[in-house]
């Protein structure tokens, strides 16, 4: 799946996303937000913010930045923030998740809901989310992951080709997430209906900041690649 295919897919789905995929992924968004709201308020990045369905669910103490590659989806998120009056949503930007335009160790929490199986180069996206997360910070994800056995495993394999045409991978391997360097798994929970979705919480190694050499000014050097043109609200 390449970035042009993703852009085209979400341009088609943006007008009806909230009533289709938004409804299907409702439980995952709710459970992820509930987990985040039990943590200390801080700087929060939502990668793949989409139409902004999750934004009203976060407590106002969280200072939220949202990024998405799709201009069409972001336009709906901006409209939602303006209509609902969400002062804690500080910035919405068009950005490639493979090249996050943020400093290292910036955010207390990074959230990615139903995103990692639809992006090109998921390994790079994972590495970027880890990079911008503070040591000791939490990465909170919800997603559908492949099952090896049972009815859901059979359905994942049977629908893989069709799902790819819609812009997501039904056979996505959870180890792409859990084996990411610098993270340790804190919680894994299957969600209704039928355990089709999974809530994952991972913590960035608290020693990560001290493992990198310091720049001349005493700050940790940025290790990401490239930058994206920001879109401000």
TrEMBL record:
Any Pfam family hit: Methyltransf_11
Write the Enzyme Commission number(s) for this entry. Answer: 2.1.1.17
Where does the record place the region Disordered? 212-233
Q: Name one GO biological process term.
A: methylation
Chain ranges of the Methyltransferase type domain: 45-141
Q: Sorted alphabetically, which keywords does the UniProt record give?
A: Methyltransferase, Transferase
One GO term in the molecular function aspect is: phosphatidylethanolamine N-methyltransferase activity
First-level EC class:
transferase
Name of the featured protein: Phosphatidylethanolamine N-methyltransferase
Native species: Salipiger mucosus DSM 16094
